[in-house]
């Protein structure tokens, strides 16, 4: 899944208070269709695919954007998540879920040559774009591996943390342990990091809990999930017209791809219910000015870090 945010700032910032934006939005009658939990949502099944067929729109998206013009490397992530650099020579393993065109994995590969990066996407076209962008930017890479997977409907492959690790760890049910399993010679024994960068918002809301639990399952005890996604009342949300609403805070674009906008409480509940411990969770608020139109543009992203508990 491609993450379609505009440039998310050079650094984690709070250029305005989210409550200030909330007050503006909730007192603007023209934006009232974004606010109501109980209403008739629009969904034209002839124009847009139903939520359970969301892989094909992303496949089509990457086919249309094969020129690479949509690519923008997310260098700011190494400042947002310094753990990706400070893990040093520990031979850490990371899974980027929903790698899109590689704009997240590329700065990670540049910033830490000792980290092994695994990347997946529901679109095989996205994986081709990722490989092309990495090949153009880095001459030789032997610590990057990609595979096709829709984590909202399928389990991650056994070799990330095999079924024997999952079901026979001797700890919490569903926990996979930190060792290479002799049952499967390809098993890497779990991950140190999982990144969900503008990916969860593209998953149908009802499938989010299952998707997060799958991320929990492949992390080592003590491993971190690093999260960044669209926040409630972000400029992108307010641009959607009423007919694009398919659920509360959930929208469908004209190309059939989905977008959900998170409040902090929703994110907190999703991850804690999956078994994670909250480490960091806050809104990142960036104000930009369109000088040509003389308008202020308010961007809101949710920044989070969540840890899988150590085995007790």
Strand content: 15-25%
Distance between the termini: 35 Å
**What is the second-level CATH architecture?**
3-Layer(aba) Sandwich
The Rg value, from CA coordinates, equals 19 Å
Mean pLDDT: 80
| Structure annotation, total helices | 10
Which residues sit in consecutive blocks of at least 5 with pLDDT less than 50? 2-10, 44-53, 168-180
Helix content percent band:
25-40%
- Annotation, overall tally of beta strands: 10
- Which sequence of SSEs, written as H and E, runs from N to C? HHHHEHEHEHEHEHEEEHEE
Question: Largest beta sheet, briefly?
Answer: 7 strands, mixed
CATH class: Alpha Beta
In CATH, the topology is named Rossmann fold
Helix/strand class: alpha/beta
What's the number of structural domains?
A: 1
Enzyme class: transferase
Protein name: tRNA N(3)-methylcytidine methyltransferase
Function: S-adenosyl-L-methionine-dependent methyltransferase.
Pfam family, one: Methyltransf_23
Written description of the protein model:
Its EC number is 2.1.1.-. It comes from Camelina sativa. S-adenosyl-L-methionine-dependent methyltransferase. Belongs to the methyltransferase superfamily. METL family. Keywords: Methyltransferase, Transferase. The chain is α/β, with parallel strands linked by helices. The chain has one domain: Vaccinia Virus protein VP39 (Rossmann fold, 3-Layer(aba) Sandwich), CATH 3.40.50.150. It has ten helices and ten strands. It has a seven-stranded mixed beta sheet. Strands 6-7-8 form a three-stranded antiparallel beta sheet, with no helix packed on it. Strand 4, helix 8 and strand 5 form a beta-alpha-beta unit. The chain is globular, with a radius of gyration of 19 Å. The two termini are 35 Å apart. The N terminus is likely disordered.
């Amino acid at each position: 899944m491609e993450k379609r945010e505009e440039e998310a700032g050079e650094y984690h910032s709070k250029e305005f208070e989210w409550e200030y934006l909330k007050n503006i939005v909730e007192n603007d009658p023209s934006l009232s269709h974004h606010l109501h939990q109980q209403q008739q949502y629009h969904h034209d099944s002839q124009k847009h695919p139903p939520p359970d067929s969301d892989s094909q729109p992303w496949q089509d998206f990457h086919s249309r954007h094969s020129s690479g013009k949509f690519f923008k490397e997310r260098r700011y992530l190494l400042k947002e998540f310094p753990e990706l650099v400070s893990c040093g020579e520990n031979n850490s393993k990371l899974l980027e879920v929903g790698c899109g065109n590689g704009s997240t994995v590329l700065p990670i590969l540049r910033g830490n040559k000792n980290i092994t990066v695994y990347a997946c996407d529901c679109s095989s076209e996205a994986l081709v774009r990722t490989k092309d962008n990495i090949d153009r930017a880095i001459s030789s890479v032997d610590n990057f591996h990609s595979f096709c997977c829709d984590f909202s409907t399928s389990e991650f492959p056994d070799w990330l943390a095999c079924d024997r690790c999952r079901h026979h760890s001797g700890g919490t049910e569903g926990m996979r342990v930190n060792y290479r399993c002799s049952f499967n010679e390809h098993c890497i024994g779990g991950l140190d990091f999982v990144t969900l960068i503008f990916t969860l918002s593209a998953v149908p809301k009802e499938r989010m809990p299952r998707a997060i639990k799958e991320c929990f399952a492949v992390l080592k005890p003590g491993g971190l999930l690093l999260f960044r996604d669209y926040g409630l009342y972000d400029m992108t949300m307010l641009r959607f017209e009423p007919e694009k609403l398919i659920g509360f805070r959930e929208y469908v674009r004209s190309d059939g791809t989905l977008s959900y906008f998170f409040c902090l409480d929703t994110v907190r509940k999703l991850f804690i219910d999956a078994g994670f411990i909250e480490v960091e969770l806050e809104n990142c608020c960036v104000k930009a000015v369109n000088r040509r139109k003389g308008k202020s543009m308010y961007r809101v992203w949710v920044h989070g870090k969540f840890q899988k508990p150590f085995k007790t």
